[in-house]
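PT: before anyone asks, these are the final sequences, not the draft ones from last week. 830 residues across everything. Please model them as a single complex and drop the result in this thread when it's through.
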Amino acid sequence: MSSCCNTKDTLASTKGILTVALAGNPNSGKTTVFNGLTGLRQKVANYPGVTVERKTGRCRLPGGTVAHIIDLPGSYSLISRSPDEQIAMEVLRGLRADTAAPDAVVVVVDASNLQRNLYLVSQLIEMGKPLVVALNMMDVAERRGLHVSPQRLAKQLGVPVVPVVAHKRKGIEQLKRAILEAKVAPMPDWPLPQEMREELLLVGGGLGLLTPQQNLERSKATAERLLIGDRAADLHEIWKQEPVAALLDHAGRRLARLGIDPMQADIEAHYRWIDAVAASSLVPAGQPLAEPDQTRGYAARATLTDRVDAILVHRFWGLVIFAAVMASLFVTIFWLAQPIMNGMQNGIVFVGHWLTHRLPQGPLKSMLNDGVIGGVGTVIAFVPQIALLFFFLAILEDSGYLSRAAFLMDKLLARVGLHGKSFIPLLSSFACAIPGIMAARTIESRRDRLATILIAPFMSCSARLPVYALLIGTFFASHSALVQAGIMLGCYALGILAAVATAWVFKRSLLKGGATAFILELPSYKVPQLSQVARQVWLNAGEFVTKAGTTILAFSVVLWALAYYPRLPAGREQAALLGGGPNAVTAAQSEYSFAGRVGHAMEPALRPLGFDWKMGVGLVGAFAAREVFVSTMGITYAVGDVENGTRNLSAAMRADRYADGRPVWTPLVAISLLVWFVLALQCMSTVAIARRETGGWRWPIFMLVYMNLLAYAVSLAVYQVGSHLGYA
Amino acid sequence: MEKVCTLPQRNHSVSPGTCRLNELGIGCTARVVSVGGDAELRRRLLEMGFCNGAQVQAIRRAPLGDPIEFSLRGYHLSLRKEQARHVKVAPAAGETAGHETE
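LR: through. Structure below.
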């Protein structure tokens, strides 16, 4: 067998910075290897224009070479229409302008699941890049009685194979050394059907005419890709050029006549080769593997995982345990995080006041206190919730339970076109959409992730509760507690209904596409490593503060300016002070400000919904966070601080009359406003995190438009139909 | 305790001795005969190891009836019924397919 171009000169001779791509199947422990190589020196961003995370990091190799490591999305294959795997392929082939083409590839292989992991390796070999195999989870394999010999595997593949136990940081130094010795693997002789081999030679020959600089091996590899329907951009539409086009056409027709599907024949040939490679590298339980029969050798899996699964995905107990796990997750981020959040927010405000107390009253002090420090407080307040959520998520994901949770819940979510893994993000969104949207990262398929992000804000979050409580408490106080609870429940139900309906619509329109195969791997259970969990919490919380936090801060300052400027003229301030005291001054200032003017300007549009300009001002304020609606109402109604209860505010709202004597607020108005709060996206932090998670303004703006249009339409319908039916 | 596997009563498969993967009785083992469906699904299933002749065992159904967990090439994965039905299987030597418990 001939070897390819540059097997002898390894990367050790190259000076400067090396670009190394880290590839591997999902669940192969790739992230742990990445963390081992790069430590905390990681950068997380999005690939421009797509909702796929781009993680990079640096590591110093022996001899002083610096390696720039790109953590590719976990992939089973490089020929795929799944956006995540397509990104991996594009980076590897150097097709992305935003990412340098890698000089070498490290592929992480799960030793306990050798064959399926070797499929990706077989594709990487075809790609002809210098390669290193990091053989991970040797310990798991050993426990199952599978002894994989790295030396034998290296001999079979023709590239360095480094055994690593990534979570114990074993083998990482050896891996760094091996990167410098990465080799282009010799092209295996895939056991393809004879007819297909002939056609490959013919098409390869045709390619040779077009690109004489390529040797026959590379031409054949390219021919193989063309024949199985790979149309990646690095092939430069060569399939359209003669004589390749005619040869391909001929090959396709001949093979079809013979009943050979090139794609299937190719994958099966890869697996036959893999079976042979695995058989020569595996020594199960001390005895040589007699036949390359895959499944028999693995009967050892009747292991701990099976025994645990017998309970955790049991028909009855599985659901009970699932409910208990989800309940504790929810309680943690809903209640446990709350006092910590309030404490941190108050602490920030306190520190802020202390820092600014020497400043003279004026715009600067106000901006620092209400804009900057208030904004920082908002950002910081999310941190405990996010940290706790990621603590949970990391444990669930690393242990392997997350896949089981998806397995249990998939049927429920599949009905509306979502994924089993959408459950936790949506559940978390009942506490707050910020951690909810962040939790959607665990969903591998981009379409399902996006659909989940788009509907997550419909879940009634904890910031809506004070608004629900104020409106229900003020306008349904005379009704029984049962009615009040019913209305509250109705708000939650409406949100879920809206989520289900829009998910259904999106999956049939905007996010349509070939049935994204729900192929969910159920990995073996593992004990989560505390250091890995802590790292996840730290990285995610830090990333939230630096990435989404800055956007939130900017929004906060803009909102401050809207409420602060323009200032009330001195004459009118005096009049207000004489008329109603300091609260009246604040109220007059609020009405005079941009926010007040926006409220007035919006009034014609809000009238049909039953809202007046004061509610408009409240809606502007609620963009900071929905519960701010309550304090904004307190200011507008000149009842002062609402911290110590909303009784004064309720009375003022009930007493409010239009010029013609009609009450401003009626139960119908309250219902219409409740509907608005359930459906509308009016939370700057949600917009900021959606921008961060989808990698641009496109999706958050879309969310703002569709959710607020929906809110408007439904509120309008409720108020108009209600009025015509004589309710008020 | 050996599980007794027989061919499903409502056999949706045309050829004798085979059935669809979603009809394979829980605990039963079979060999893959063919993989259908649209090109993308077929490619994905093949790449995950559902090649001709590969041995696959039905492990369990999710409590709500769907998806189904299978064991293949030493690892476990779950497929929705909608996808599993595109895989045609033949009971492995010494075993036959089981009842569909729907």
